[in-house]
Each structure stands twice: as structure tokens, then as C-alpha cells.
Amino acid sequence: MFGLSLLVSGLAWWLGLYLLARDPRKPVLWWAGTGMIGYAVAVVVPHPVLLGVPALAWTGAILVLARPEWVRWWLVAVVPFLAASFWLPWLVLLPLAASTALAIRKRAYFSLVGVMFGLSAAAFLLRLLPDAATLPMIGLDLVVFGVLVAVTDAVEEGEAIRADMLRSLVIAGFTAVLFGSQVVLFGGPELLAFTTVAAAIAVQVLANPLASVVDRLAVPAVAAERASLREAAESLPKRLPLVTDDPAEFARLTRKALSHYGDLGKLVASPLIALTDEGPPLDRAAQLKSLLFASIQRLKPAGGEFGTSDEWRYYNAVYFYYVKGIRPYSVRTKREDLDPEDRRALQWFVTQVPERTLHNWQNAAARLVAADLMAGVGSV
Predict the structure, then answer these.
(1) DSSP state of 346
(2) Alpha-carbon span 317 to 239, nearest angstrom
(3) pLDDT at 380 over 50
(4) Can you spell out the DSSP letters for 49-111?
(5) Residue 115's pLDDT is what?
(6) CA Rg, the chain, in Å?
(7) For the stretch 338-365, what's the b/e string if a residue is b when 16 or more beta carbons lie within 10 angstroms of its beta carbon?
(8) Which residue in 60, 53, 21 sits closest to 38, CA to CA?
(9) DSSP 3-state helix, strand, coil percentages of the chain (rounded to 5)?
């Protein structure tokens, strides 16, 4: 039982940290990663309230995927549900069941895994089966769910996932066995084995964030450059081959590349890197950035430096948002370094352009940029 618990807990811990490390700013990864980490702790301390954490976190992840407009309400409700679970542990299954039902039409595969997890969690919370049977069942469901979330995120990002995930799992497994086996072989306490395995996995999965923190403290002058090099190296296994015979997919990849315009490390993973000449990864990312900029500039109407007529909307939507980094609906945009043209653009966006409209213009502009890039491919 101890060996199985150690394996299941370590696997859940790794997957939770892996999801968070992909991009902790994404709500679906944050919710799913928190659920996996909560389950890893629940395996060590199998208390019904701790098992409520993955159930509530999974509810949040499913809502992000199926009904994102409801997530803000769930952020308010999650604390009362967790508090109520001290008296009625099975209560956490109600929002899980509701969110699973909501996801059936949009994300049927998540609903199926949600039903499996709900049944396993119910068996544990209602003591229908021994903990030795229900905890691994729950772990299997959560791992399947976590992998589905990672794959879904990779598809949306236009990235490969298998090589990157397998690489992370192999290194995490090696370090966990290397250090955890010493505790087990020398007869250390079970809790020490769990914490040793967790620490070994965390150091591996979070190596880049930890290195960035150390660099900012020890070598701040080159911290940003070192972080860019690490991100580029991590991005290489995530790159998919470029397929140019599907205009819709090419436009989607272009839209994603535009969203990473200012991040060379992210652009390294873009399939559009195939449009550049052979060379070091960061050099090719810089070339791709130049190609995107040239295509954006071809959207600019002739005459004048800034306009707000219909012919300017696509250019403004991508140039000021991605190239100049102006975020009109974020308080962080209120900077003092904006030039007069940027200030005019910011004022126009805030007062005249709804956020949804800007999003639609960016999608249309991405299709135009993609068509321009495709024309360049055809002329070569």
C-alpha cells in the first residue's frame, strides 16, 4: 500500500507542477494543477476535506473550459464549499456534478472523466470501498484529466506536447527514484519518503522558475537574457511541423504567433519558424518576428501616422496591441513612457472600441497577416 501511495502521489504531484509550470497565468492550468497537487497531499493525509480540494479545483477547470463567464462566481463560491465540507464532505460533489453536466456539449471527454472521478470520490467520501481501492481510482481519473488539460492547452497554443511531457516525466521519475529510494532502503519514516520525492520532483519541474529567481538575485544584469535562452531551449521540443495546406489552421497559428510577438522564447516553439532560414533558435525567432512586423506594416493605410477610420482598424488592432505592447483594458497600460501617437491610440481604444470588437479585429487582421505570409511562401 505504501509503495502504491508513493507512486500515485508522486505522479499527481509531478503532473500538477507540470501544468502550473506551463503557464500559471492560464486559469485552466491553475485550476487543474491545484487539483492535482491537492490530490497528492490527500494521498499522504487521506482526509475527506483534503479530497475536496481536487473536486473543487476540477470544477473550476471544467467551468473555464465550458462556461468561462461563470468562473468569477465560482471563485467566490469555492471557499464556502470547502468550509462546508468539514461537516458534509460529500457536498463538494454537487458543483462537480453540475459543471460536468454543463461540459457535456462542449467538452464531452472532460465530462466522461468527470463522471469517473465523481464516482470514485463518492465511493471514498461515503466509505463504500476501502481507501486502498478508491484513492488509486481517483488518482487514475485525475491523471487522465490532467493529461487532457495539458493536451488541450498545447493544441490551443499550436504546440507539440508528447515529447515535452515525456521528457519532464522521465527526469522527474529519475530524480524521485534516486533520492526517494535512499530513504526507503535505509528505513526512513514514510512521511520523509513522501516529502523527499516531492522535493526532488519540484526541483526538476520548477528548475527554470527557480533559476530565474536565483539569476535576479545573483546576476541581475543578465537575468533576462539567461531566462530567454532557457525558455528557447524548453520550447524546442514543443514545436510542431508547419502545414501550409490548411488556411484556417495557418491563420490560427499566425494569431498565436502574434500574441507572442514580444517573446522570442515563445516564438521558438511556433510552427511558423519554418518560414525562416536555418540558424540558431533565437535568431530564427527574431527572423519570424521581423516577418510578422513586415506583414503588419503592409496593413497600414497609405498616408498619415495614425487614423481611426475603418481602413485603419486592422492595423491599429495588431500594431498597437502587439508591436507597441499597449493593453487598453489593463491598468498596467497607464505608463508614462507612451509617445503622443500611443496616447491617442490608447484613448481611442478605451473610449471607442469595445474589448470584444478589438478581439474580432485582431482575428481578422491575423487572417490578413497569414495570407501575406502564405503569399511570401508561394513566391519563394
Answers:
(1) H
(2) 27
(3) no
(4) HHHHHHHHHHHHHHHHHH-GGGHHHHHHHHHHHHHHTTT-GGGGHHHHHHHHHHTTTT-HHHH
(5) 62
(6) 24
(7) beeebebbbebbeeebeeeebeebbeeb
(8) 53
(9) 80, 0, 20
- Work out the average pLDDT over 89-114: 66
Three-class SS of 123-161: HHHCCCCCHHHHHHHHHHHHHHHHHHHHHHHHHHHCECC
Whether the CB-CB separation of 180 and 163 falls below 8 Å is answered with: no
Q: What is the pTM of this model?
A: 0.83
Look-up of cell digits 476501502: 130
**pLDDT exceeds cutoff 90 at 121:** no
User: Is the per-residue pLDDT at 204 higher than 50?
Assistant: yes
* CA pair distance 96, 46, nearest whole angstrom: 20
Whether 42 and 12 have beta carbons less than 8 Å apart is answered as no
Distance CA 53, CA 38 (A): 6
Inter-residue contact 14 to 168 (CB < 8 Å): yes
Give the span between the Cα atoms of 59 and 70, in whole angstroms: 11
The stretch 242-268 carries a mean pLDDT of 88
Return all residues near 253 (Cβ < 8 A) that are at least 6 apart: 158, 242, 270, 271, 272, 370
Cα 201 from Cα 213, distance rounded (Å): 18
Residue 142, all three cell numbers: 485525475
From CA 136, how far away is CA 120, in angstroms rounded? 9
Count, residues in the chain: 380
- How confident is the model over 207-230, as a mean pLDDT? 88
Q: Which residues of 161-199 are buried (b: 16+ CB within 10 A; e: fewer)?
A: beebbeebbeebbebbeebbeebbeeeeeeeebbebbbe
Q: How many CA atoms lie within 13 A of 302 on its CB side?
A: 0
Report in angstroms the alpha-carbon separations of 290 from 158, 221, 277, 295. Answer: 20, 26, 12, 9
Q: Which three cell numbers stand for residue 96?
A: 462537480
Kindly tell me if the per-residue pLDDT of 290 is higher than 70: yes
Indicate the average pLDDT of the chain: 83
